[in-house]
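FW: tagging you since you asked about this chain on Friday. Here's the raw sequence from the shared folder, copied in full. Didn't touch anything.
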Amino acid sequence: MTKHLKSILRIALVLLGTHHGLGAAPPDSTLQFAVDYARFRINAVAAQVELYLGLPRAQLRFLPEGESLLASFESRVVISAGDSQIVTHNWVAHSFARDTAEISPSQILYTQAVFQLPVGNYRFSVHVRDLRSGYHGEKSFEVPVARFETENLALSDLEISARLMKDTTRSLFYKNHYTVIPHPHATYGLSLPMLYAYAEVYNLTFPGDSAYSVAYRILDGQGNALKTLPVKRRPIQGKQLVEVGAINVVSLPAGTFFLELRVRDHNTQTEAVQRRKFFVYREDQPPATALEGRDLAAGVLQALYRSRLSEDLDEEFKAARYLATKEEQKIYAALNAEAKQDFFVKFWQARDRSPETPINEFREDYLKRAKFANENFSGLRKGAETDMGRVLLIYGQPDEIERFPSTSENRPYQIWKYYQIEGGVEFVLVDASSWGEYKLVHATARGELRDDDWQRWINPAR
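HL: got it, structure written out here
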């Protein structure tokens, strides 16, 4: 391997709490990850190519390791020129967690590797594998490396990042006095409102009597200008300088955009321009098409259930069994752990009432009610398994609750009222055993137990 093909590795993991679309749902046993790259000049005939990887933390399988949980994944990069493989590199990265509650699909693990390549056309094949589960994913793409200008004003690729800060410690993502955290998903929103940009400016007039200016614009998917930031004038302190910027994109609607950087050398009146695509996701605005939303929602569920253990899934199914058909109950009982993970993805997808959004709001609301039931209705049984829990899970929070405490003659009971169901329905629940667990004794909803003489449950001596 020549010195220009030498691989310079910068590998680290960074955890960012971002909410964004995860892409189309992968087939079974496929890891979903994002990949991106940027090219920077070494000299006229060679470039530094930085490769960025990001994958949802929840896709990995975490297993006990001492008092913590550990997940490990391996990244492998093969770079080919024509029919020849010229670079092959593997590395392993790890992620620790205190418990499963610490892991969510919105957390992204980042890693990167850096390569020096001469001018030419290359094919990158990137393979990522979870060392615990065996799940894997692969992406291939072309990377052209063109000759860099040595005389005229020029720019490197425009790298957009999730975080950018001054760095005096030379961290693993260090670059020209900055830490630049890659963001290959390129998706921003309410939880990640700031878009950071990094670029290198080459061949400025130095020494010179003038200055240079930088201007940022945000363009829509068709290239129309939406937002123009004020032009900044800066002194020329060298022929090669670094440009960093921060743009708040939280006010943009959901969609696809381009960040444009334009640099002008006032000495020569020449300009150089670079653009970079990015995306904005907003929970209050659905994606452009329902198909895209369904794919994003499936990807979120795939990522969530990849890390769940069989016993955790069984507990969730106990709460979800009120929704399951008899056939689904039979199918679930016969599944192994991995098949249960896939079952839940399909199970909740089929009940998603807003498939155009990446988040399955029905599932989240249902499981919140199950948690509420377990925290408030539990006694000899878990709250979600009681009659009160079942009514809450199936019908939701009642519009009104009438509570009647125990007296010398009557048992305690409650009447739950729903005004928007079937023109108005009621459920009468009585603590018939005096153990604190309320039993459903009467309901006016179709298909539920009906007992017009339900008062006998309140006062057995009547």
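FW: Confidence is low (pLDDT under 50) at residues 6-11, 17-28, 286-293.
HL: agreed, and The first helix runs from residue 290 to 305.
FW: great, closing this out.
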